[in-house]
C-alpha cells in the first residue's frame, strides 16, 4: 500500500486538521442555510410570518461557506483553470508557469487577508454591526482574513511541490 504524500511530506496532522476544520465549518454553514431557508419559507407560506433577519443570516453563512472552502480548494488544486494551451507547451515551461501562478495567487491572497484584517480592526474599533440583527461584523471579517491568509500560504507551499504529485482533479501530471 502506497504512502500518501502532501507537498513532499507524509500526510500531516496539519493537513488533516485543515481539511477537517474547514470542511466541517463549510458543511455546518451550508446545512444552516438549508435549514434556515426551509423554516423561513415554511413560516412564510404556512404562518404568514418569515424569520426576522433570515436574509442577513444567509449572507453571513454564505461568507462562512465561501471563505472556509477557499483553503480546501487551494489545497486540492480545484480552482478554475484555463489549460487549453498546456498540451502545446514544454514541461519545463509548464512547471515555471505553475510556480509563477502559485506565487501570484499566494501573494494576492495574503495581501487581501492583510487588508481584511485591517478592515476588521477598524470595524471592531467603531463597533460596526449588521443592519437588521446588529451582529458585529469584525469577527466575520477576521475569519475571512484568516482563511485568505491560509489559502495564500498553501499556494506558497505549492510552488515547491513537484509536478508529479498533482492533487486529484488538478490537471495533467507532467
Characterise this structure.
With 174 residues, the protein is an all-alpha fold. The protein has one domain (5-165). Helix content is 67%, strand content 2%. The protein has 4 helices and 2 strands. The protein has a two-stranded antiparallel ribbon with strand order 1-2. Strand 1 and strand 2 form a beta hairpin. The protein is elongated and about 65 Å long. The protein starts with a strand and ends in a 15-residue tail after the last helix.
SSE topology:
Blueprint lengths: L4 E2 L2 E2 L2 H35 L6 H23 L14 H36 L11 H22 L15
Antiparallel strand pairs: 1-2
Helix pairs in contact: 1-2, 2-4, 3-4
Spatial order of the strands in the main sheet?
1-2
SS summary, helix count: 4
Dominant shape: elongated
| Mean pLDDT across all amino acids | 86
The overall strand count is 2
Rg computed from alpha carbons, rounded to a whole number of angstroms: 20 Å
Helix content: 55-70%
Alpha-carbon distance between the two ends: 23 Å
**Secondary structural class:** mainly alpha
Task: Give the tags.
mainly alpha, 174 residues, two-stranded antiparallel ribbon, elongated, 4 helices, single chain, 67% helix
In short:
The chain has 174 residues and is an all-alpha fold. The protein has four helices and two strands.
